Amino acid sequence: GQQVMQIPQYQHVQEGEDFTTYCNSSTTLSNIQWYKQRPGGHPVFLIQLVKSGEVKKQKRLTFQFGEAKKNSSLHITATQTTDVGTYFCAGPDNYGQNFVFGPGTRLSVLP
Amino acid sequence: SQTIHQWPATLVQPVGSPLSLECTVEGTSNPNLYWYRQAAGRGLQLLFYSVGIGQISSEVPQNLSASRPQDRQFILSSKKLLLSDSGFYLCACQGLATAGEQYFGPGTRLTVT
């Protein structure tokens, strides 16, 4: 079946350092979504990418969708303690009915 | 925008006891609804989804069941809980926008002892 993988599983950074998480799908995706889950909280939708090679920015966050539409990345510039949490990517399943979530990347930011 | 309510927030239940978790949605009609389970420090596992009243699809065989008695009500149940049922249960609603993003409720933390 369809698989969505993310690396790294964990990332510890010093405040002010950059951070990147990568998402890879076993199949071509029509779109990809990114979510953030704060410790103890629930996932919150961040963004959706649809076009091949698309790049979107939200303040210090930069999201990219690969040319082949099988991979994506989230880059955070100059991390802050408020960036702590787990970042999930999600892509539609083969039937387009549901979304398959990656296992997430847990980010820790040391002040 | 949609608001998703879940209760209870936390629950401790003994093995073999029944379970009923409720999710209600405001601000939308005829939404697609989802139940996910998240083990500690892990990703999201889709358990059930529903595209309408009485329509339930199961993604993973298990001792859990779901029902949708009303358009904006989604219930997760079990007749006899197992230790492995412990986890963080999240209800989600698919957004009104064509993007299809999912909005999650606050979740229920279930500990089976």
What is the fold's blueprint, element by element?
The complex is a heterodimer of chains A (111) and B (113).
Chain A: E1 4-7, E2 10-14, E3 19-25, E4 32-37, E5 43-49, E6 55-58, E7 61-65, E8 71-76, E9 85-92, E10 99-101, E11 105-110
Parallel strand pairs in A: 2-11
Antiparallel strand pairs in A: 1-3, 3-8, 4-5, 4-9, 6-7, 7-8, 9-10, 9-11
Chain B: E1 3-7, E2 10-13, E3 19-26, E4 33-38, E5 44-52, E6 55-58, E7 64-70, E8 73-78, E9 87-94, E10 102-104, E11 108-112
Parallel strand pairs in B: 2-11
Antiparallel strand pairs in B: 1-3, 3-8, 4-5, 4-9, 5-6, 7-8, 9-10, 9-11
Question: How does this structure look, described?
Answer:
The complex is a heterodimer of chains A (111) and B (113). Chain A is an all-beta fold. Chain A contains no helices and eleven strands. In chain A, strand 9 and strand 10 (99-101) form a beta hairpin. Chain B is 0% helix and 58% strand. Chain B has strands at residues 3-7, 10-13, 19-26, 33-38, 44-52, 55-58, 64-70, 73-78, 87-94, 102-104, 108-112. Chain B has 113 residues and is mostly beta strands. Chains A and B meet through strand 5, strand 9 and strand 10 of A and strand 5 and strand 10 of B.
Low-confidence region ranges of chain B: none
Oligomer: heterodimer
Shape type of chain A: globular
Largest sheet features of chain A: 6 strands, mixed
Q: Count every helix of chain A, treating DSSP H or I runs of 4 or more residues as helices.
A: 0
How would you classify the helix and strand content of chain B by structural class? mainly beta
Q: Could you state the order of secondary-structure elements of chain B as H and E?
A: EEEEEEEEEEE
- What percent of residues of chain B adopt helix (DSSP H or I)? under 10%
Number of helices of chain B: 0
Beta-strand content estimate of chain A? over 45%
Helicity range of chain A: under 10%
User: Low-confidence parts of chain A, pLDDT < 50 over ≥5 residues?
Assistant: none
Radius of gyration of chain A: 13 Å
Q: Helices and strands of chain A: which structural class? A: mainly beta
N-to-C series of helices and strands of chain A:
EEEEEEEEEEE
What average pLDDT do the residues of chain A reach? Answer: 95
